[in-house]
Write a structure and sequence with these properties.
The chain has 4 helices and 2 strands. The protein is mostly helical.
């Protein structure tokens, strides 16, 4: 949400010790918020900044794990469990972070 983003930015600005590794936990919160709102490019940019700033910190480790979840390839298929024989059926395929997808449809043996 916009208020959440503004609150995090205010915490960044008011941070008394910007070189403190705990600042990466704020980066993680911001990246998580971007991820929850499907702003994946922004989330990865924030994550990369946190990791570059303090790579061994708790927040940077959380950021690294979040980045792995964002960039993980996934394929999800939904096919009706009961299809009338001799009729066409639709299937839904959802992909994330997959460049190419090949299908082979096999005609079942009667």
């Amino acid at each position: 949400s916009i208020l959440f983003d503004e609150g995090l930015y205010e915490l960044f600005r008011s941070s008394a010790i910007p070189n403190d590794p705990s600042i990466t936990e704020l980066y993680y919160l911001l990246a998580s918020n971007y991820n929850d709102n499907a702003k994946y490019v922004d989330a990865v940019a924030v994550i990369d900044s946190a990791i570059a700033l303090h790579p061994e910190s708790y927040g940077a480790v959380n950021c690294y794990n979040l980045k792995q979840r964002i960039l993980r390839p996934s394929i999800h298929m939904e096919i009706p469990s009961k299809m009338p024989s001799g009729r066409n059926a639709l299937a839904m395929v959802s992909v994330t972070n997959v460049d190419t997808l090949f299908f082979r449809i096999i005609d079942p043996v009667s």
